[in-house]
Amino acid sequence: MRFDEAYSGKVFIMSGNDYEKAQAVIYGMPMDWTVSFRPGSRFGPGRIREASIGLEEYSPYMDKHLEEVSYFDAGDIPLPFGNPQRSLDEIRKYVTKLNADGKFPLGLGGEHLVTWPVIQAMHEVYPDMAVIHIDAHADLREEYEGEELSHSTPVRKICGLLGAENVYSFGIRSGMREEFQFAKESGMHMTKYDVADPLEKALPQLAGRKVYVTIDIDVLDPAFAPGTGTAEAGGITSKELLKAIQLISESEVKVIGADLVEVAPAYDHSEKTAIAASKFVREMLLGWVK
To answer: What is the rounded CA–CA span in Å between residue 23 and residue 13?
Structure first.
């Protein structure tokens, strides 16, 4: 199940070699075909893996060690360059396979549109699922410059599939007036600017439910994550996002899968974005893979 032909040989720290025995599978979705500002997130999965070498395997936040979780890094899905629809089809097909094999899917983006086919695949297995969306951007457009397949549209598509009332967005600080009006009128749950405190208040509403979590690295302020395609001033700190991941871990929701997207390494020569992202992935593995 490893994509040997397109894979560099680098894996996330302490990744196992046995797909069959793994509880979780890390996989890359190296697509940035629809970005509207700065491309380069297709290189994000590789840099997150490379940055992970600097991590401690033990998390003081979770009081757990990575040896306590069995996971396999499958590498990056080989996606047809410049072809959004075929790329989305390949992602959906792969996640469908992970579901059939009983794996916890943990995806690395790539632009945020890659979350859409993952949700489609997850919904086939979990029709009553909900989504926690942590992001600077609403991503509620129906199209961007006439293109329905855009990194600005995944959450709107998800609302259409799951029902807007099953979508919980946090940290939002950018979008069209119409996107905020849709959020208000559709019944979805949107919190602007902050993440940890409103998330803590919302989690009891999701107790006992199966939830997919999607995190866009640009929810962080550019001071903490300059390496992203559409940076937005006024964001949260790395500490707050770590707290949010921990809150989900300690809650009564059942996380069924997750992704972390929009790391674009070319805009961050300090590598602080990839370093932070790798730490978040560690916490997601330790906290959400049961």
So the answer is: 16
